[in-house]
Amino acid sequence: KAGVTQTPRYLIKTRGQQVTLSCSPISGHRSVSWYQQTPGQGLQFLFEYFSETQRNKGNFPGRFSGRQFSNSRSEMNVSTLELGDSALYLCASSLEGRSYEQYFGPGTRLTVT
Amino acid sequence: GQQLNQSPQSMFIQEGEDVSMNCTSSSIFNTWLWYKQDPGEGPVLLIALYKAGELTSNGRLTAQFGITRKDSFLNISASIPSDVGIYFCAGRFQKLVFGTGTRLLVSP
After folding, report:
1. What are the chain A neighbours of B45 within 8 Å (beta carbons)?
2. How far apart are CA B24 and CA B69, in angstroms?
3. pLDDT along chain A (113 residues), means of 10
């Protein structure tokens, strides 16, 4: 069974731009969560989606948004990029009823210049 | 953002040695998980713990869910070079909160 896939793997953007990251969960997994990983703050929860609905949200500004499609694929969007948004963005999927067992993708490395 | 306190921050050991790391929190969790992350990759789930006091093994790895539900530890026995990486604990109540990580280096 294929794992979680994320595209693109690497991205360079400039301040003020916006970016969209994509995540395809493991087949059969309907829950998708997004995390930001930085050396200073570690792994921080962004949001969780299940059946196209946001179920939980972390403490990030409104510039960070996401959505989930009917096939469980998910996208996250960051608008008006800031230098501090440079990070590894990780997507994780899980089975319904076992959302505590999350399986991570390889991440998208975003660099904002 | 909220993080769990994980110790030690880093360890440098010889191949064959046993390793122990732990994670503590001021909050109670109903699930504890341990992940390993290799450079350039996402974390990989190693062990999941669901009940206070639970002791679970996965090969050379053993983890325990603390009785107080505020801590967990991970032991690695007979370490090998491929154990190198960053180990994260994570506690879950309504969302997943991660530890600060333990960087493990193993010398052949």
Report:
1. 101-104
2. 9
3. 91 98 96 93 91 92 97 97 97 85 93 97
